[in-house]
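Ticket #4471: structure output looks truncated?

Reporter: J.K.
Steps to reproduce: submitted the chain below (362 residues) through the standard prediction queue, then opened the result file.
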Amino acid sequence: MRDELAGFTIGVTADRRRDELAALLQRRGARVVLAPALRIVPLADDTDLREATRACLEHPPDVLMANTGIGMRGWLEAAEGWGLAEPLRATLARAYVVSRGPKATGAIRAAGLREHWSPGSESCDEVVEHLVSRGVAGKVVAMQLHGERQPECTDALVAAGATVIEVPVYRWAPPADPAPLHRLIDLVAGRLVDAVTFTSAPAAEALLRAAGDRTETVLEALRGDVLAGCVGTVTAEPLVRRGVPVSAPSRARLGALVRTIVEELPRRTVSVKAAGHVLTLRGHAAVVDGELRQLAPAPMAVLRALAASPGKVLSRTALLRTLPRGADEHAVEMAVARLRVGLKAPRVVQTVVKRGYRLRVD
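Returned output as attached by the reporter:
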């Protein structure tokens, strides 16, 4: 098969670059569920941003912490609107510039500035460690925030003797339409998606917060059947802290995240031989002798149960437990019938009179 992710369903929680990430996944055959967990609200007219900008002009920073590309661009664009862009650029040009990642570096260079150092991990902790070891006592540090305050970083710098000017350029807000996020939570809780992607730590926190009393159910799914794909280790931190195993590339890029998912999801497939056919279970589809067969959730659930114990007879009652709540034994019969049609290999699933069904492995 050329489409490495064919048969898999993947949730995308990003907002700003959701279309780009979705396209990368769909190009590899995945079915994508778009469900932004947060949205970015610019603060171009915010009083706090203007005051922070004036503070930087009145007390020129010795150090600039550029955390995000969108934040640095937004700050300079806001300053342009206030007629302060050139004075701000001139002031920041004299600072020791720490760029937390490649996007921030790109924004710094586009503004005609130059970065002096970047952390390998793209983490705030590594930035603080570098600055403290370099010495910040008596110095002014301008910290461009990325969505919300980072009190642990600010406090560590203040404890080392620095004066910190926090620059809030944008904030995180709930999605304008929360319905897709709640739908994704339903799918994760029901193990009806194969992976969920996260491109920021706040998005991971937001999804768990939105899950409410189902948070532990969602975490259990992410600890087992549903892959948590994070763009980097910083993004993964809220999930790792809760015992969720994550897959993250060594470099925080969307393309690298997609490649990581392409490597990981196919490893989770199950292959069995039945009635002379080779079946591989991939997410919401089965590959029968190399041909992809899309299946609805109920037939797929029945196939998974049967494939978990090839040749073993499962009763209607046992199979009923794999179907959505409210289903009855007639629903099991319907699911089996639809499974046979969907596989286009009717002999694969054998009816054992008065006992149930099994995969025909003999």
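Triage note (M.O.): checked the attachment and the full token line is present. DSSP finds 15 helices and 17 strands in the chain.
Status: closed, working as intended.
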